[in-house]
Every structure is written in structure tokens, then in C-alpha cells.
Amino acid sequence: MDAATCPWCEAPRKEGPDCPRCGANYAKAEAIKKHGRAEVAVVAASAEEAADAQIFIAGEAELDDRQAIDDPQTEFWFSAAAIPAMLLIAIVFQSMEWGRFVQRLVFTMPVHELGHAVTAWLCGFGAIPTVWVTITMEERGFVAPAAVFAAVAWTLYRGWQLESRTLLTAGGVVLLLQGILTLGIREHTARSLITFGGDGVGMVLAILLMGSFFFGKATQLYKGSLRWGFVAIGAGAFVDINATWWLARRDPSEIPFTTRDNGMESDALRLVNEFGWSEAALVNRHILACLVCMALLALVYAWGVRRAWLSAQPKS
């Protein structure tokens, strides 16, 4: 890495210990790039600083938001408004026929099919999500569980390297889910969960997309504005999926019991005909998933807004 540039974002170096572009401490960022793990480094810019020279080098995840973000006050207002505003926009789109069509085509279907695929992978089945259908293997295999385990192991390793509680927690939760869904349930039950996962796990993916707004301030999520796109996709998919089941709760004729021209049944029809779910159970389980997801999103939102508010306060 050229000493004239920041080790983290490669912007030209300026005077001072921190990069004005990404907020990273030059010495810390250089240590992380070289060693990939928290190290102890000596930083002594002058004789007066020699007594406090030993500084603990933290990973990217531990960088203070005051350093990582451009404007803490603006970030606070963005954090408070982004998710409610996107959800409101999605509700407005959902109220219009053409808006509902666009929302379902662009946002919901990719999230829905990925919901099927993620559930299948966690249950030990190979799966390939496409635009309108997810191709799922008939039986459990070795490749899918091994790939999921490898991804989780890498996440845990990176979390350990960066001392990131977020990565460690996420990796631990996914590992626990994989153990239960792959080793603890029968294949027939797993296939019913995979069918339910289109909307059920799709809602989970939608709130993860929205919740990502509060994370990764030192990554491209923030620097490249990817988080705005993720919030829009998550909000659109979440509103569209839930509109179906809240309408069905009021009027059972709204349950999407459909059959395509090629004879393929909808997920709702398969859950009733193939797996023996009652109509009431079908609707209630989707509504329960919705309520749990809304509660989790509310907790993440409250945490993220509070964190942004604290970062926006003047230093004492």
C-alpha cells in the first residue's frame, strides 16, 4: 500500500492521525490490513504523546461512528426517517394496481424466491433461486450443508479477527439454525418449511435488508449508498408479502390458491394439499411470522436511531 494514501480507502493522506474521507486511524487501518487482527501498536507523534503511545488497534467494526460517517447530525435524521419513509412509500405503491404489480415484480419475487432457497440451504437441500421459481433438490445432500457451514465458519473467523459481536452473533445464530433444520427435522417437514419459506423467510430477509441501514458505516453499504437500495427492496417486499396475508385474514377468498398454466401449484395450495395445513393455520402462521418480524425490526430500528442520536451529540 502506498504510504501516501490511506490504507483503508486509498484516499490521499492528509496531516493528522485520521483519514478525513473514511475516518479510519492511519496506524490502526495499516495494522488491520497487514495482520488481519487486533494488534497493539505504538503511535508517538511527538514527545508529549509518548506516555500514551500504546494504543489498542480495533477492527473495522469497532471504529467510532463519529469517524466513519460524514455528518453525524444528518445521519441521525436519515436513521430516524429512512425505514418509516420507505415503508410509507411501499404502502402507497401497494394501494395502486400498477404500483402493486411493479413492487411484486421488482422487489417481492427475488426476495420470495431467495426465501425458498435460504430455507432449503439451512435444511440441507440444494436449491437454485430463479426469477419465478426455485429449483430444489428432492433429497438432502452434502454440498449444500458443507457450503453453508463453510460460509458460517468464515463469518465466525472474520468476527473473531475483527472482534465484531455482530458477525459472531450472526454466525452463531445461523450455525444453530443449520444444526436444527438439517439434523433435527425429517425431510417431509423440511420440504413444508421450504414451501412456507418463500413468504415466511422472505419476510425475515426483508427486515434484514431494512435493518442493514444501521450497520457497516465503514463499508460500501454506507460509502456507496447501497443501504438505500436495500431499504427500498426490503420495504417493498415486506409490504407486498404482508398485504396478501392480512387481506386473507379478513377474507379467505384472498388466499393465493392458484395453479399456473404448466400445472405448478402456488405455495399456499401446496401447503394445504401436499402438507395438510388447514386454511386457518396457513393464514395464522404467515401473520405470526409478520408480527415477529415487525417486532424484531422495531427493536433494531430503536437501537439504530438511539446509536445515531448518541453519535450526533457534541463531544464533552
Task: Describe this protein's structure.
The protein is mainly α and 316 residues long. It folds into two domains: 1-58, no CATH class; 78-312, no CATH class. 61% of the residues lie in helices and 4% in strands. It contains twelve helices and four strands. The chain has helices spanning 26-35, 65-68, 72-94, 97-122, 143-162, 165-183, 187-196, 200-211, 220-223, 226-250, 267-273, 279-312, and strands at 40-42, 54-56, 127-129, 134-136. The strands form two sheets. A two-stranded antiparallel sheet has the order 1-2.
What is the CA-based Rg, rounded?
Answer: 23 Å
Shape: globular
- Give the low-pLDDT segments: 37-65
Residue share in helix: 55-70%
Order of helices and strands, N to C?
HEEHHHEEHHHHHHHH
> How many separate domains make up the residues?
2
- Total strands: the figure is 4
User: What class do helices, strands and sheet pairing give?
Assistant: mainly alpha
How would you characterize the largest beta sheet? Answer: 2 strands, antiparallel
Residues in β-strands, percent: under 5%
First and last CA, distance: 36 Å
Q: Output the number of helix runs.
A: 12
List the helices and strands and how they pair.
Blueprint lengths: L25 H10 L4 E3 L11 E3 L8 H4 L3 H23 L2 H26 L4 E3 L4 E3 L6 H20 L2 H19 L3 H10 L3 H12 L8 H4 L2 H25 L16 H7 L5 H34 L4
Antiparallel strand pairs: 1-2, 3-4
